[in-house]
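Inverse folding, one chain.
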């Protein structure tokens, strides 16, 4: 007779050990998916969301003096409304917690996909941590998070809808890729496939939340089209009903994307915008620098390729097609790396485990997990070490003075400087939130780019910021580069520039008619000489009122880092001091 009590006692330590491994992995992953730095566009997203709640959706450019009346195709309406409500209810810290939980949920997928991971957890842990590191660089509070969340929901929907269908080589060709699986393993369940109709409302929400819906709808269409190929070749005329159903799903999902404030105009703009290069935006660059994120991406691709090659499990034609397309996009554009990471978690994890088992069995290694006491000891030590850093990361969203012009904003507020201002595009939405709310200031250009600015305005801005800069920008304006054109267009009063963009600083030093009013190690503020350098001018700023130095900017202020307008401490400054940070302008 079999000793069931012995089996029960043997499985208990394995279960406890498994939970300890999951907990330890999530502790490590939490550090990776909890970056808390302020995104440069978050100020604008919250401001536009608040504006929409108060006044309705804006149809033309706001807060700009160069594009007044120009159409605004905003592909982030719902996400901006959500961010505005989120900031005004649960606050920045609450948003940090939510986006960290989303990241951890995605990192848990490999454990969910490997039901018996307790037997050999190492390959699952590796996949989970690779996912976490490949999310890190894109996991700030921003509208892109909604696209990542919706993509994860789409993959989860596919996982259930195609139960029994995916994970097999469902084609009559290259049958060796079935890897021992019989051809009659191909099957589907009509009741489960009906779940894919939920993709229709998902596509509607996604379209109105972020422009990444184009990637999601593209993956959905390719996935369903490949499943149709499988059904047609394996079942022929018997698959006619399934083919009609899947084709109708594609059509209705595409129609759902037309339900947005701009109808087909959104798609037309998106297609035109996608044809334009974006060298000015780092996230649209390929991964060509040797940093941690590039290494993590290359490691993830290496794991995907090697595991698919050495796995004993059958390959899936549809999954291979989607993986190839998404991987190609991720190689060309950094911002698509999280999509590939999520596909890795859902579809590649079983192959990683299979390939690992194959290698370890050949080498004669015995796959053993650590004793529960050791595993939980690691969790406890890790929890103690990570508790304070995690509390700090999730309790405040810092606006670092050496990254954002906090001190320059304080100077502008202190001296009541306002009006038409040229602001470096990476700071412009911070300026909009801090200086444009009362309608007395506006910007030449900001990070919304082509959604609400004509190309000519974009070109003149980067003529000033970057100059010719081959390979660093996409210019369509006819004629030679004129770095001073932005200084005359619309008659601006002020210039706030980033000294890390030395071309603009050089232009200001060489051009006539402008006076330096403020300088620190990070930023400069220039004003028109006829307004700020003439004693008879009502806006005259005496030399002793100016602040010219190379003071190093240190510390941070809690988001939104907007100076108080009533002379009292702003809540962000109070919170920063509560965390021991400096609120001074810097140190020489």
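Residues assigned per position:
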């Amino acid at each position: 007779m079999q000793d069931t009590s012995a089996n029960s006692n043997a499985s208990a330590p394995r279960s406890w050990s498994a939970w300890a491994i999951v907990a330890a992995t999530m502790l490590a992953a939490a550090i990776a998916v909890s970056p808390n730095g302020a995104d440069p566009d978050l100020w604008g997203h919250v401001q536009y969301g608040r504006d929409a709640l108060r006044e309705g959706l804006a149809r033309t450019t706001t807060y700009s003096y160069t594009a007044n009346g120009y159409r605004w195709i905003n592909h982030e309406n719902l996400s901006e409304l959500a961010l505005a409500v989120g900031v005004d209810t649960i606050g920045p810290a609450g948003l940090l917690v939510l986006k960290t939980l989303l990241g951890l949920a995605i990192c848990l997928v490999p454990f969910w996909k490997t039901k018996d991971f307790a037997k050999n957890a190492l390959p699952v842990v590796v996949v989970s941590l690779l996912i976490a590191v490949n999310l890190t660089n894109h996991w700030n509070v921003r509208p892109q998070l909604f696209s990542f969340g919706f993509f994860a929901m789409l993959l989860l929907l596919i996982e259930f809808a195609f139960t029994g269908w995916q994970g097999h080589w469902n084609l009559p060709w290259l049958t060796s890729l079935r890897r021992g699986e019989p051809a009659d393993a191909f099957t589907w369940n009509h009741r489960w496939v009906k779940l894919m109709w939920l993709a229709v409302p998902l596509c509607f929400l996604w379209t109105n939340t972020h422009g990444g819906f184009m990637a999601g709808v593209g993956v959905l269409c390719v996935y369903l089209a490949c499943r149709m190929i499988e059904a047609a070749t394996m079942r022929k005329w018997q698959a006619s009903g399934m083919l009609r159903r899947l084709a109708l799903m594609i059509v209705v999902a595409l129609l759902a994307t037309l339900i947005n404030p701009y109808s087909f105009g959104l798609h037309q703009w998106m297609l035109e915008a996608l044809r334009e290069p974006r060298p000015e935006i780092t996230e649209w660059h390929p991964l060509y620098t040797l940093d941690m994120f590039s290494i993590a991406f290359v490691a993830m691709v290496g794991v995907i390729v090697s595991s698919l090659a050495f796995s004993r499990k059958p390959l899936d034609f549809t999954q291979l097609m989607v993986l190839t397309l998404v991987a190609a996009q991720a190689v060309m554009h950094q911002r698509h790396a999280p999509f590939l990471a999520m596909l890795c978690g859902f579809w590649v994890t079983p192959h990683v485990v299979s390939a690992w088992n194959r290698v370890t069995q050949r080498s004669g290694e015995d796959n053993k997990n650590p004793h529960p006491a050791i595993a939980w000891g690691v969790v406890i030590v890790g929890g103690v070490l990570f508790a304070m850093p995690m509390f700090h990361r999730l309790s405040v969203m810092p606006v670092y003075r050496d990254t954002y012009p906090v001190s320059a904003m304080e100077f502008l507020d202190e001296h009541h400087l306002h009006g038409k201002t040229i602001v470096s595009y990476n700071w412009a939405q911070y300026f909009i939130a801090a200086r444009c709310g009362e309608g007395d200031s506006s910007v030449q250009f900001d990070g919304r780019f082509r959604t609400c600015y004509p190309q000519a305005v974009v070109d003149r801005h980067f003529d000033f910021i970057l100059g010719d800069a081959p390979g660093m920008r996409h210019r369509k304006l006819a004629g030679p580069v004129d770095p001073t054109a932005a200084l005359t267009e619309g008659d601006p009063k002020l210039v706030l520039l980033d000294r890390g963009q030395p071309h603009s600083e050089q232009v200001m030093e060489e051009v006539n008619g402008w006076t330096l009013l403020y300088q620190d190690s990070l930023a400069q503020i220039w004003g028109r000489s006829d307004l700020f350098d003439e004693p008879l001018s009502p806006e005259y700023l005496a030399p002793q009122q100016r602040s010219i130095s190379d003071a190093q900017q240190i510390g941070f202020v809690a988001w939104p880092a907007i100076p108080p307008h009533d002379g009292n401490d702003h809540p962000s400054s109070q919170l920063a001091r509560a965390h021991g940070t400096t609120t001074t302008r810097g140190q020489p």
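The CA atoms of residues 210 and 560 lie 23 Å apart. The chain is about 55% helix and 5% strand.
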